[in-house]
Design brief:
heterodimer; A: 112 residues; mainly beta; 7-stranded mixed β-sheet; 4-stranded antiparallel β-sheet; 11 strands; B: 114 residues; 6-stranded mixed β-sheet; 5-stranded antiparallel β-sheet; 0% helix
Chain lengths: 112, 114
């Protein structure tokens, strides 16, 4: 069966510090991978998606970047965090043309 | 521009009664709709979906209805149980290419009282 792992679960970082969140998927190959963010009191917003290694599409301009160094690994990064980067970050995967995304447990990021 | 809207931030129902969660969308290109359930500090879990070629899909206690002309869908939970208490997100996809990029609504918090 397929599983998705996302870590860390919680993170408190000072403004201006770097960020690296990692997500890996097991039990499937060539998944589509996604990073979503849920800001306080709001729905989930798609940040990045990837259909293959090294292929990243950004949905909204922001202070974040994403990379996919391996088929089942997706990384969310920032060089300098802003207060507005605080939120609940979710990694998700699906298979091409099977429009049912599976989500990780999420990372609660608080920038102080 | 909110393409998927859940106008009710919260809903409270009695155990055993019906819960009806509503969702409206504006993009006529959306052709696939999903409902997710989310508990605090956890990722959303898939609940039920419907293709735009259907107007109803049922799975146990959960039924999703789609009214394309009104650009409206709803999730019915019958009978509601206390364990159903969670945040429910409506999501839509335009099925663009090979990706299932989902556009989510703001969520509705459902509380089922014993």
């Amino acid at each position: 069966s397929q599983t998705i792992h996302q870590w860390p679960a919680t993170l408190v970082q000072p403004v201006g510090s770097p960020l690296s969140l990692e997500c890996t998927v097991e039990g499937t190959s060539n998944p589509n991978l996604y990073w979503y963010r849920q800001a306080a009191g709001r729905g989930l917003q798609l940040l990045f998606y990837s259909v293959g290694i090294g292929q990243i599409s950004s949905e909204v301009p922001q202070n974040l970047s994403a990379s996919r160094p391996q088929d089942r690994q997706f990384i969310l990064s920032s060089k300098k965090l802003l207060l507005s980067d605080s939120g609940f970050y979710l990694c998700a995967w699906d298979q091409s043309r099977v429009f049912k995304a599976f989500f990780g447990q999420g990372t609660r990021l608080t920038v102080v | 521009d909110q393409q998927v809207k859940q106008n009710s931030p919260s809903l409270s129902v009695q155990e055993g009664r019906i819960s009806i969660l509503n969702c409206d969308y504006t993009n006529s290109m959306f052709d696939y709709f999903l409902w997710y359930k989310k508990y605090p500090a956890e990722g959303p879990t898939f609940l039920i979906s419907i293709s735009s070629i259907k107007d109803k899909n049922e799975d146990g206690r959960f039924t999703v209805f789609l009214n394309k002309s009104a650009k409206h869908l709803s999730l019915h939970i019958v009978p509601s149980q206390p364990g159903d208490s969670a945040v429910y997100f409506c999501a839509a996809s335009a099925g663009s290419g090979n990706t299932g990029k989902l556009i989510f609504g703001q969520g509705t918090t459902l509380q089922v009282k014993p």
